[in-house]
């Protein structure tokens, strides 16, 4: 098992302490921003609940029969529920269905084959559709001893309050900048890169790590350069749109672009020091920029459906230019 980061350790230790004290709930909701490692904690907790000889650290031993079966994906008392492929269309479903929740109910009704617990991990829990939620409520309302449902969600607020209120919450929070920085440095990244990545990711260590690994920071720099050139009238909207659409990364570009608009709005509102963007900020129109932020996010969705992506994107980039009306 890989080493867990401090922001993963905290909720895990909370759950382990509750387990030791006999206070662990039968339904847990592991909630918090995406890419903070919630699933790894759910898996560690599931392993602990199914382990017959946990170690002194309170975690699964890794070598008892239960641990070996779980690692092999053949533990009879474990059920993983996630998005499944729709056999009619061959595509991944966007929802967790009532059939899957019924399977969970049947599993929990069985006597554990290894004599321990019955454990299920539901990820992403916020993908439960309405009828699946209703079916799950029944399971939650009649908890059975030794049955644990670990629900993982990056958007816990999307779950009905009736479900949330029946879960013990494990919160995953974006850590302080120092902790995130130390973790990324320990992973072997250079300090200047780490600082730039954390700045871009607003302190989110998981996103920063992704971006350090896949070169997205360079992409962010080029997006910002394009936007500056557009604002200054030194680049054409159609040319930039063509370049942004030339590979598969237009969504990430638009997300960086929206972020740039939000940063500038923050600077105009005095929330962020002007710094390097002072020249750009001086000419920006706050109302137009904040509208542009929304438009950029809408365009991200639109590009998945529209035929003329180039014209749609060029239109958005022209509006960016107009947000700097003072020039
Ligand atoms: Zn074990």
Key terms for this structure?
327 residues, alpha/beta, Rossmann fold, Zinc Finger, Delta Prime, domain 3, two-stranded antiparallel sheet, 53% helix, elongated, binds zinc ion, DNA_pol_HolB, nucleotidyltransferase, DNA-directed DNA polymerase activity, EC 2.7.7.7, DNA_Rep/Repair_Clamp_Loader
Topology summary:
Elements lengths: L5 H15 L6 E6 L5 H13 L14 H8 L5 E4 L3 E2 L4 E2 L5 H12 L8 E5 L7 H12 L5 E7 L7 H4 L3 E5 L4 H10 L4 H10 L4 H10 L1 H16 L5 H8 L5 H19 L9 H5 L3 H17 L6 H14 L5
Helix pairs in contact: 1-2, 4-5, 7-8, 8-9, 10-12, 11-15, 12-14, 14-15
The protein binds zinc ion.
Catalytic activity: DNA(n) + a 2'-deoxyribonucleoside 5'-triphosphate = DNA(n+1) + diphosphate
GO cellular component, one term: DNA polymerase III complex
Pfam family, one: DNA_pol3_delta2
| Mean pLDDT over the full residue set | 92
The 3D shape can be described as elongated
- Mind summarizing the main beta sheet? 5 strands, parallel
Secondary structure: helix percent: 40-55%
Span between N and C termini?
56 Å
Based on secondary structure, the structural category is alpha/beta
Tally of distinct domains: 3
The CATH superfamily of the largest domain bears the name P-loop containing nucleotide triphosphate hydrolases
How would you describe the oligomerization state of the chains in this entry?
single chain
Gyration radius from CA atoms, angstroms? 24 Å
Instruction: Name the poorly predicted regions.
Output: none
Number of strands: 7
Strand content: 5-15%
Listed once per kind, the bound small molecules are: zinc ion
Name the strands of the widest sheet in spatial order.
2-5-6-1-7
